[in-house]
Amino acid sequence: MSDNILEEIFIKRSQQKKKTSPLNYKERWFVLTQEKIAYYDFDPDKGKRKGLRGSVDLEKIKCVETVQPEPNAPQERIYAFQIVYDEGPLYIFAKSEDIRAQWIKKLKEMVRFNKDLMHKYHPCSWMDGVWLCCQQEVKQAMGCKVLDSKNASRRRGSRKPLPPTPTEEKPGRPLPPQPPEPSAPSVGMTVIAEYSYTPMTPQDLELRKDEEYTILEMSDPNWWRAKDNYGNEGYIPSNYVVEAANGIEKFDWYCKNMNRSQAEKLLKTENKDGGFLVRDSSKAGKYTVSLFSKGGGETGGSCRHYNICTSPQGQFYLAEKHNFNTIPELINYHQHNAAGMVSRLKYIVSNRARPPSTAGLGYGVWEIDPRYLTFIKELGTGQFGVVKYGKWQGKHDVAIKMIKEGSMSEQDFIEEAKIMMKLRHENLVQLYGVCTKQRPIYIVTEFLSNGCLLTYLREGLKQHPTAVQLLEMCKDVTEGMAYLESKQYIHRDLAARNCLVDANGTVKVTDFGLSRYVLDDEYTSSAGSKFPVRWSPPEVLLYCKFSSKSDIWAYGVLMWEVYTLGRLPYERLNNTEIVDQVSRGLRLYRPQLANEKVYNIMTSCWLDKADERPNFQKLTLTVQDLLYELQ
Ligand code: ADP
Ligand code: MG
Prior knowledge:
By secondary structure, this protein is α+β, with helices and mostly antiparallel strands.
């Protein structure tokens, strides 16, 4: 099987590493794989690929963008794009707009979790010692154009313009949803608070919902230093604010970074006739109104999606005769008039009902004073002892793990906790902090009211789950894991029992990396009775070789748990039999609820050779595509 994701003959410009080296343009055979983009010599007569001329590791890529053609460019050098990495830009020319768009799209998808993605770029090329766009003469000069992050990552091939009056987004041709792309704010920028935030430490700054703040410092990605309009300064949770770009952020009906399937999920959960929200359209820079209606015969109601169009005069409209200067005016009008839609916009459905978790309880805090904790009820008992639900400062829900003495190598864990605190993703259970000044020590985390995923699968699902619901749970886990993978963090004990479910049914991964601190041979030795043998690949069972690819194997087993509604993997076998049979090729069967495509994902996670298994970044895309096919 070929690992090549894309192959194409392009013209490549020489990289002009020295100012005086002459420019040349050569045809090269480009090959994109999971790890790199490589280019080869090629024999145009025989159409054959020859020696490797160079390559760029995908993880080094900082930006992939189009390039404006140089003045008087010949026909074959019109469709230029650039791949920027630590050695500067690589300029490539495609034969057509479509091929260029296809490569840019794919590359952007593959590098979107890279560490040093650029916020600014040069729209024209570097040539003979000068940037043609801004005339700067230093090759390393920062880009002169801000990357429109929506534009940069949401452009999904070529979508045909939709007909007006009112323009309804076509449900037929699915576009896979993208994970939310954080916009790229910078120091000095004005942001708007999407949520209020009460300072938790004297260093924090209060946020009042819908007010504006200026960003002063961003060295910690989770806590930015900001200033309010009264001159007060302090740290704010970076996930509570959005860039004030278009004046609609402050409206509750605007759900930034929400895609079509998330909008439908939210509207259906609210289940209100005329429930609506406004989200970013799949078309860059455009907006879509998503509206839920109970009429129309479909049991349970259905969602419609209407694009907000712009007239040649720059006015906004949903229905052609009703044009407005601003989107808020347009929404206000349609809150009173259906004007061609299935209903008027009756209820605002907002994703801001509850603020998200912060990375810790205040800036720089990881040691929590236990006097501020109130214990409310016991949630269960795990490897480290009792877990309780409680409140911090009487109002914030938290889960508290009380670490049974002798069950954990505490000092090592406490060191690690500082790193874990910085991991923040909506599909990871947030670590808030630790109480280490007394015994037993406590680990304080985000509380998820629907508890453990395994129990939820076995008992908690009130009705028979739909195909979308099952796949959504898997998607949640993949996204959390893709984030961990991007931070080179290995979970080591991924399984349904180590995932939790929140009040909305969102699944989050927990206990990542924790197994390293367990003091219990039965758990840590692969021959021990508590070792997660059923979730382990052959290389872990045989050589204790943990990696993100062993997490991938476990993810396949977790998917199997989801699709069997919580059965025990290899239920008829004991651990010794599993080690023996799995290393000889035995795999879990296809669950009844899983179709071929879903089962194919699982089996790809169980390939014998670890490096042939997909990574989580790729799995996210596969699962999203499948989800889109279902909707
Ligand atoms: P351990 O990791 O120490 O083995 P667990 O994480 O399995 O312990 O916790 C035991 C039980 O407590 C879980 O099965 C779950 O029901 C409950 N629980 C743990 N953490 C949370 C949380 N953050 N929110 C809600 N319930 C939780
Ligand atoms: Mg656990």
